[in-house]
Structures are given as C-alpha cells and as structure tokens.
Specification:
The chain is an alpha+beta fold and about 240 residues long. Helix content is about 20%, strand content about 20%. It contains five helices and eight strands, in the order E-E-H-H-E-E-H-E-E-E-E-H-H. Strand 6 and strand 7 form a beta hairpin. The longest helix has 25 residues. The relative contact order is 0.16.
C-alpha cells in the first residue's frame, strides 16, 4: 500500500494529511484460474427392441369376437395362451409370464386359463420399450394382429385396448392395479384354444362362445367343445 501526504491549509496553518492510495488494480484483474469445460448433456440411450415375430399368414382375417367373460372355474393354462407366452419370451428374451390363478368370487380370465400376465416394468427403459412395441404391433390397424392371436383385450401402463371395440383406442384404465409392472392379455376361446390364423394358417369363420352356466349363480361346467349358440338365460337356481 502506498502512502502520500498532501498539504491542507486550515485557518492559516499548514497540515500534512496522509492519503492512502489503495491498489485496486489487483482486485480488478481478470481471474486467470483455469476452468474445466462443461461436458455436453449425455443423450438418452436408444433402446434396441427386436422386430416383431413374422410368418406367412392367410389373407383372410379372423372374425372379430365379442367380450367373453370367465364363467367357469378351470385354472389350467390353455394351449393358445401358453404358445403366445412362449413366442413372446423367445422373440424378445425378457420378462416372466403367468397364466392361471385359483378362482375366487371376482371375474378374471386367469381363472379359466385364458389370461396372460407378462411381467415388464414401465420403470425399466428396455422393458418399457419392448412392451410399448408389442402392444402397438398387436393393436395397429384396428387390431389385425390381435385378431390373428385371438386376443380380446390388453391392459398396460394405465391404458386398455379392446379388440371388440377398437374405435375406443387406448382408453384410460382406472382399475385398482395400474398395470405398470406387467402387460395383461385376455384371450377369446378361439385364441385360448389356438384355433386362430397365427396357429392354424386359416382364419376363423365362426366364434366359439365357450361354456354356458347350467344353474344361476354357479360356475359353468368345464370347457369341453366349441359352442356357437347363445347360452340360455332362464336358468334354475
């Protein structure tokens, strides 16, 4: 710090007043400390999803089916559902699957072996990419591929798509389970029994409506054969 004196006259007396010249230059200097360069943001990793399964298919398309709710208690995996699960796991090589469950008072196609849960998580980028790709493939063009497999409806990641009402598109699903950790597929009876064109090479020309109840409020007898006629409605108790 440099100190200088300046003469100041007060009432005729000359006084020497010290003045301090503060070196501000050192603080005004540009900071020359090296700054590490900031790397650019890392781009999101693109998930690679295998192509959908392919095979030679008939030109004719399987009939559209109405919703066929579970009426019987028959928790045994049906062949078309098992074959679809095996095809998905072999092609995409991810996720586990489950089909049948023990019956209770609720309605679920799991209870007659016609529903599949494919465990894929919406929180896992790779599994979500696979799930999104599969459900888009099945529901595209009003559900052409869903009809080839006999898939009645799909629930995935809080959305539901219906083969029997494709005009509704992917509608919001508000059930108690949001299906963010698995895809749910329910199958028609033709799909469950592997009678659709993906498996047979021939499109279905009639709709198997499954077993009928014999007594009101009771489970229907176990599935034995295809049924195309409507079930009776006036049932004894």
């Amino acid at each position: 710090m440099a100190v200088r004196a300046r003469l100041v006259t007060l009432s005729g007396a000359a006084l020497a007043v010290p003045l301090m010249a503060i070196g501000l230059a050192s603080t005004a200097r540009a900071d020359t400390t090296p700054v590490a360069p900031v790397p650019p943001p890392t781009p999101a990793k693109l998930q690679v999803v295998p192509a959908a399964p392919t095979k030679v298919l008939s030109v004719a398309l399987d009939m559209r089916t109405p919703y066929e709710p579970q009426l019987s208690c028959d928790p045994h995996d049906k062949p078309g559902v098992s074959a679809f699960a095996a095809l998905m796991k072999a092609n995409y090589k991810t996720g586990t699957t489950g089909i049948s469950r023990n019956c209770d008072a609720t309605v679920s196609e799991h209870y007659d072996g016609r529903a599949l849960d494919w465990m894929l998580s919406a929180k896992d980028p790779q599994q979500k990419a696979v799930a999104d790709s599969v459900v888009a493939w099945l529901s595209a063009d009003n559900g052409v591929m869903a009809r080839r497999f006999g898939i009645s409806y799909i629930i995935w990641n809080t959305k539901m798509w219906r083969e029997y009402a494709p005009e509704r598109g992917w509608a919001a699903y508000t059930g108690s389970v949001p299906h963010t950790d698995h895809i749910h597929f329910s199958f028609s009876w033709d799909g469950a029994m592997a009678r659709t064109s993906w498996w047979t090479g021939k499109a279905t020309t009639s709709v198997d409506l499954g077993p009928c109840r014999v007594y009101a409020g009771q489970f229907a007898p176990l599935y034995a054969r295809a049924r195309t006629a409507a079930c009776p409605t006036n049932l004894p108790v």
